[in-house]
Please model this.
Amino acid sequence: MILEVKNLKKVYGDKTVVNIENIQIEQGETVGLVGNNGAGKTTFFRMLLDLIRPTEGEIISKNENVSQGDNWKSYTASFLDEGFLIDYLTPEEYFTFIGSLNNLSIADVSAYLTQYGEFFNNEILNSGKYIRDFSKGNQVKVGIAAALMQKPEILILDEPFANLDPTTQIRLKNLLKAQTGSMTTFISSHDLNHVTDVCNRIILVEKGKVIKDFKTDENTLKELESYFSA
Ligand SMILES: Nc1ncnc2c1ncn2[C@@H]1O[C@H](COP(=O)(O)OP(=O)(O)OP(=O)(O)O)[C@@H](O)[C@H]1O
Model:
């Protein structure tokens, strides 16, 4: 087991927005987190990354409580939103910076980026533009590529498909599928099709609680569609 969530609660005012008794994640699992707006997905991810503190309970990453240590930071990469980027850098400068934090040389970073030609659709590199001047979808591509560049053991992506064009969504699915088994991945998504395609386990949350937690099979998409059509 690489991650465990124990009696996790986040309360704002009189509202409990996350209330998860237990989730255990095995190494190599690709877990999709689905649930309607306000279900608590982003709040959960923010606690997983120690960006906010739980009201109660804990998240254990390889035997370490993420809010009490920082070993987990060396093998965890994430992209939740544009706040993870540095607006006044070009993508190349940003990749070099993230690379330097992970002991990658400029040459390593350039070599890594050559695989991303298709994903970037020739719009990211050598443009001379700052990240702040890119479209939202292209900013997301920068953030996801920077997270993958770290070759993390744990990858966390919040709604990665949301701002991407259909072609790039499919390319992203292929990138994620290529890593299946070697990386433990947590992806939240409103795209039931993509999330069941990429993930081998789905956790369905409603009002902060886990309603279903199951392995994906050929019936999963139908089950999810019927749940959400109610
Ligand atoms: N800082 C905060 N103060 C008060 N309430 C908050 C705060 N952050 C989140 N919430 C509330 O917590 C609930 C869960 O929000 P969250 O963003 O985690 O949901 P989500 O599942 O990611 O939704 P979406 O699919 O819309 O992105 C919402 O009701 C939200 O209003």
User: Anything to note?
Assistant: Residues 90 and 129 are 6 Å apart (CA to CA). The longest strand covers residues 15-25.
